[in-house]
Amino acid sequence: MEFPTYRPRRLRRTETLRAMVRETVLDPGDLIYPLFVKPGTGRRDEVASMPGVFQLSLDQLPAEIDELKSLGIPAVILFGLPESKDEAGSGAYDREGIVQNAIRAIKAHDEDFFVITDVCMCEYTSHGHCGILDDTGCVMNDVTLEMLADAALSHAEAGADMVAPSDMMDGRVAAIRGLLDREGYTDVPVMAYSAKYASAYYGPFRDAADSAPAFGDRRAYQMDPGNAEEALREVALDIAEGADIVMVKPALAYMDIIRRVKDEFGYPTAAYNVSGEYAMVKAAAEKGWIDEKRVVLETLAGFRRAGADLVLTYHAKDAARWLAEG
Ligand code: PBG
Ligand code: ZN
User: Where are the beta strands (DSSP E) in the chain?
Assistant: First the structure.
């Protein structure tokens, strides 16, 4: 069919019609909200570079979970700010650590709320790298695997519903899956940060989680932004090692990777709409330069259209509210 018989504008005339033929519809049920947890009581400290995002002490969690639930957001991913840090990142696998206690606090309040944990070392190491260092300051891969697996196990023991390794060590999904299975946690899925790039977009997160590397950067373990074929190999490895959900991170500059991963593997795919992406939108909106609601909903729909089944986003609560308003 061609013009003038076919006129695409016919289906764009009214909102009713546009909604009827819309291919991708956003649902708060596909969003995951990142939460930063810290020691203390009565703490609700806003992150300077992420307006509207707070570091919360554990007593704040019940109200936060109730709010998320009322908005239709089913899950959180937890990041911890420990009391103290050391070379070995021992807070990551401390059975009484901040994330382990946060999981128990959430589950005590609402057993059904879905709790995902970020599994990494960088929030717990004094040097801020995602693993254990050798004398040259290089992250040792295989030694780190044991600690990541133990951290994941400690989360499962505390009641986590899913674990999400974000370190980019080789072999970590197999190490985590193996230990969880040996310890009886065969039903705890692994959501792997499979294609995680060494990105400038993580800047505000490192303020939020106090996890900036003390020296150097993460380019020796996170992916080079120029690579796409390598992302597919990373995803293939994680799937072979037992990942249940694969993730692309960041999202906005890597929409092509989301699409290729979804097409190639057909696996449940998550996209992480990261801190810098959030901060840019908030800053422009504060200046009155963009319509935040429309920009956010358009971007989130873009991730879904690109092939993401799930979106991790700091805008989850805003988006859910705007979707409810219509
Ligand atoms: C820890 C981790 C990071 C993010 C999620 N998990 C930071 C990093 O790798 O430096 C980034 C999240 C964001 O920017 O929103 N490895
Ligand atoms: Zn890390």
Answer: 31-38, 44-47, 50-57, 75-80, 114-119, 162-165, 191-196, 245-249, 269-273, 310-313
